[in-house]
From TrEMBL:
Keywords: Cytoplasm, GTP-binding, Hydrolase, Metal-binding, Nucleotide-binding, Ribosome biogenesis, RNA-binding, rRNA-binding, Zinc. It comes from Nonomuraea bangladeshensis. Its cofactor is Zn(2+). It is found in: Cytoplasm. Residues 98-259 form the CP-type G domain. NCBIfam families: ribosome small subunit-dependent GTPase A (TIGR00157). This is Small ribosomal subunit biogenesis GTPase RsgA. SUPFAM superfamilies: P-loop containing nucleoside triphosphate hydrolases.
Length: 358
């Protein structure tokens, strides 16, 4: 008998929907229960089920692949019992993926099934345009909607000037000047959050303080920053998912020191939309925007309508994303070759065994 969706007040608080319920039919028939992963550490995870949180084990994928490893925000099929075990992950609707810290061809999933990405940057230090562009590319590529929260407005000399600068770098995203200390624009920020929200940003940006304010209680540890450079220690050491009082959930993340892109071509097109638009008016379809005649991008730079730094940043991030994509393609080719060799070896062994039996 088909399982019906009868739990609007349990997992619904964490984002469970009728559409997810329908994909879970076969898992129900196998005796599994739905769960959302709220935290992953040391080969185990904390999973939220309709009856509450539980600690569960999971098997690492083979061959190892961070993209297939359970992550905060994932929906999963859980085998309940004395030792709950995560059996399978449900397909992700979105994922925030950066290149792994080891610079391998694998990507690292920071959070899964995300609807809103809040990029937190402190107004107590000068705006880092390149860092904001990277974070925006990461957010747009995931399929989520980015929101830029400029924090610590109470420590800023000219918050509105920085906001205007950030808006020019973030087409399509809302940019808000906020302050946890004074409560400035906190309600406005909360009103922009939809579904599952993840907080991204460098250490010292005040992410945990902002998260506690949005959550309505002190659930996350906070720390101080160094006065000389505005940087802080990692007070958040792992990603964790918590329900928001107004609905939806929030994922706080450790501060990002490295923000290497992983196959983020679509995200870059959104971040640098003005360059993409200008390129459509270049005389040549394959214009490299260097010294070609009739280049609309170079004309905009000469007219002062487009900062040259912006084009340099676009090219740098394009090269980085293309390199990551090529590494991933090469790895997939190698894996296919290895799989074919294993199949061939198995067939040869089978044939030898058959011949020996004759």
């Amino acid at each position: 008998m088909p399982h019906t969706y009868t739990d609007p007040s349990g997992l619904s608080r964490y984002g469970w929907t009728g559409a997810l319920e329908r994909t879970f039919t076969d898992h129900y028939e196998a005796g599994l229960v739905p769960a959302r992963i709220s935290r992953v550490d040391r080969g185990r995870c904390t999973a939220i089920t309709a009856s509450g949180p539980t600690r569960a084990t999971f098997a690492a994928p083979h061959p190892p692949d961070p993209l297939l490893t359970p992550c905060t925000g994932d929906w999963a099929a859980l085998r309940p019992g004395a030792e709950p075990h995560l059996v399978a992950l449900l397909p992700r609707s979105s994922a925030i993926v950066r290149s792994s810290a080891s610079r391998s061809s694998h990507g690292q999933v920071l959070a899964a099934n995300v609807d809103t990405v809040v990029i937190a940057l402190s107004l107590a230090t000068p705006l880092d345009a390149a860092k904001l562009e990277r974070l925006l590319a990461l957010a747009w590529e995931s399929g989520a909607q980015p929101v830029v929260a400029l924090t610590k407005a109470d420590l800023a000399d000219d918050a509105e000037a920085v906001r205007a600068e950030a808006e020019a770098l973030a087409p399509g995203a809302d940019v808000l000047v906020t302050s946890v200390a004074t409560g400035h624009n906190i309600d406005a920020l909360a009103a922009l959050l939809r579904g599952t929200t993840v907080l991204l940003g460098p250490s010292g940006a005040g992410k945990s303080s902002l998260a506690n304010t949005l959550l309505g209680e002190e659930l996350l540890a906070t720390g101080t920053v160094r006065e000389q450079d505005g940087k802080g220690r990692h007070t958040t050491v792992r990603r964790e998912l918590l329900p928001l009082p107004g609905g939806g959930v929030l994922i706080d993340t450790p501060g990002l020191r490295g923000i290497s892109l992983h196959d983020a071509a679509d995200g870059l097109e959104q971040v640098f939309a003005e360059i993409e638009d200008l390129a459509e008016h270049c005389r040549f379809g394959d214009c490299g925007h260097d010294s070609e005649p009739g280049c609309a991008v170079q004309a905009a730079i000469a007219a002062g309508a487009l900062p040259e730094r912006r084009l340099h940043s676009y090219r740098k991030l394009q090269r980085e994303a293309a390199w990551a994509a090529s590494r991933a393609d090469a790895r997939l080719r190698d894996e296919r070759v290895s799989q074919q060799k294993a199949i061939t070896s198995h067939l040869r062994a089978t044939y030898r065994f058959r011949d020996q039996q004759q």
